[in-house]
Amino acid sequence: MDDRELARVGAWMAKNVPGFSGPLSATKFDVGQSNPTYRLNAGSGAYVLRRKPHGDLLKSAHAVDREFRVQAALWQTEVPVPKVLALCEDDSVLGAMFYVMEHVGGRNIDEPAMAGASPEERTGIAEEMARVLAAIHSVDVEAVGLSDYGPPGDYYARQLARWTKQYRASETGTVSEMNRLLDWLGANMPEEDGQRTLVHGDYRIDNMLFEADGTGCRAVLDWELSTLGHPYADLAGVIMQWQLPPGPEGRGLDGLDRGELGLPTDAEFVEMYCAERGIAVPKAFGFYVAFAFFRMGAILQGVKKRALDGNASNPEKALRLGAFVPRFGYLGLRAAGDV
């Protein structure tokens, strides 16, 4: 953000953010590949700004206005979110839509292995993840004004159609594993079971802020992909990440001794979540995990295409992530039992 952009943002905040006062400075967070995010330091305190990226964007992608709406609706529910302050739909201010929210202090945990944590701390954080996820899926969407936040109908059929379209629009070459996975998902769609809840869309440990000296969650972040849909999409997303290799790229738990680390198995986490919601453990959970791998593969393909088109927030990292697309297709097939 250059000085002229910062001046326009400051002038806009003076008119739209109650209690704001300058001077204003900005530092870009070096995380995320989707919506560029900045910490704003001002005389009145710290804020966070998230904006759409520049360039040609896929329809419905980078929906910062949806992020703003859902966080405003969840404020003062059991779901911890930052307080949003103002949404700017005037592209002349920063060249793209953006919103400003309060800065929430806390620690961000990059990987589910939680290097340096004690087994007891890891157990507590895993339990908190299950509790917060159940809270998201227990929100009364009618009461908070989100009853129209997603279209009605078969969530997984709708999502498969959407992400197939997104994936095809972002293709930069043929990935046979993703094509095979797409075929399997289309042939193994589960029957509707009547569950329709708020869905985060990218629920994982690095999209959460935790207490500095505890295991409580202070905020769930990055609601860009949220909608109304099937809650197992979020649950399977957690399991998907845990099945990836450990380390800064995979950020998973594959091959680690979870018992020694104090972390639950996939099945134990599913049981913890279901106990929080008071529901039975789902059957044929492999479909949901397989779909989670396909959707993440499609997202990473979009990240790769933005890098090749010159529109990525962090081009070098975007290309590294894009290289994982075939692996996500393979792991989705493994979850489906097709490899």
Automatic annotation (TrEMBL):
Keywords: Transferase. InterPro entries: ACAD10-like, ACAD10_11_N, Aminoglycoside_PTrfase, Kinase-like_dom_sf. Signal peptide: none annotated. It comes from the Bacteria. The keyword Transferase applies. GO terms for molecular function: transferase activity. It holds the Pfam family APH. Residues 27-249 form the Aminoglycoside phosphotransferase domain. This is Aminoglycoside phosphotransferase. It comes from Roseivivax halodurans JCM 10272. The lineage of its organism: Bacteria, Pseudomonadati, Pseudomonadota, Alphaproteobacteria, Rhodobacterales.
